[in-house]
């Protein structure tokens, strides 16, 4: 049960908790193969640093997962979270037809959540998302423990796909 006095710890998935390196190849080809990229997500290895941080924050916070993955990936995403031993938590996903940049969609959701809840921390690997969230006054942890992907960064910003 959600308690509005319990602060939220908001975690991104791809590049923060999930290692997407094995599926980057689908974004490096032209045209990008989004169906294959998302279909491979259930096979993502967990990123130990991110998982440890989520478990640590779960001791005092409600964990909420905020991902740019489309809603059609919900079943696989929820199963992946459970399989990694991550804390239970709500999952906020992008509408299937939403192509806005991640920094817009995520900041909008953070602001909505902050209306009636304290957001203790927001953890994400996307520098543009982190910059905008920090500028808006959120406490941000930049997830810099996964290898950066130029193709993924372009997809997040220009194509609004993850």
Describe this structure in words.
This protein has 162 residues and is α/β, with parallel strands linked by helices. It has a single domain, classed as HAD superfamily/HAD-like (Rossmann fold), CATH 3.40.50. Helices cover 39% and strands 17% of the residues. It has seven helices and five strands. It has helices at residues 25-28, 34-39, 48-58, 74-83, 102-114, 127-135, 150-159, and strands at 8-11, 62-70, 90-94, 119-124, 140-142. The protein has a five-stranded parallel beta sheet with strand order 3-2-1-4-5. The radius of gyration is 15 Å and the shape is globular. The mean pLDDT is 89. Residues 10-141 form the Polynucleotide kinase PNKP phosphatase domain. It holds the Pfam family HAD_PNKP. This is Polynucleotide kinase PNKP phosphatase domain-containing protein.
- CATH top level assignment: Alpha Beta
N-to-C SSE series? EHHHEHEHEHEH
Radius of gyration: 15 Å
Question: How many DSSP-defined strands?
Answer: 5
Looking at the structure, what is the overall shape?
globular
Strand order of the largest sheet: 3-2-1-4-5
User: Per CATH, which architecture?
Assistant: 3-Layer(aba) Sandwich
Task: Kindly report how far apart the N and C termini lie.
Answer: 29 Å
- How would you state the average pLDDT, rounded? 89
CATH topology title: Rossmann fold
- Largest sheet: number of strands, sense, barrel closure: 5 strands, parallel
Q: Structural class of the helix and strand makeup? A: alpha/beta
Estimate nothing, just give the exact number of structural domains: 1
Unreliable stretches, pLDDT < 50, 5 or more residues? none
Please work out how many helical segments DSSP would assign.
7
Strand content: 15-25%
The helical percent reads: 25-40%
């Amino acid at each position: 049960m959600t308690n509005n006095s319990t602060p939220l710890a908001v975690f991104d998935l791809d590049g923060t908790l999930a290692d997407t390196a094995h599926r980057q190849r689908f974004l490096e080809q032209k045209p990008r193969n989004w169906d294959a990229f998302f279909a491979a997500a259930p096979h993502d290895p967990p990123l130990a640093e991110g998982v440890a941080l989520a478990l640590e924050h779960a001791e005092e916070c409600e964990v909420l997962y905020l991902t740019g993955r489309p809603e059609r990936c919900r079943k696989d995403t929820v199963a992946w979270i459970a399989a990694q031993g991550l804390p239970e938590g709500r999952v906020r996903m992008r509408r299937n037809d939403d192509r806005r940049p991640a920094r817009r969609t995520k900041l909008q959701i953070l602001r909505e959540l902050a209306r009636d809840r304290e957001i203790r921390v927001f953890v994400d690997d996307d520098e543009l998302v982190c910059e905008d969230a920090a500028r808006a006054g959120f406490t941000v942890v930049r997830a810099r423990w996964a290898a950066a992907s130029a193709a993924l960064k372009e997809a997040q910003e220009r194509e609004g796909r993850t």
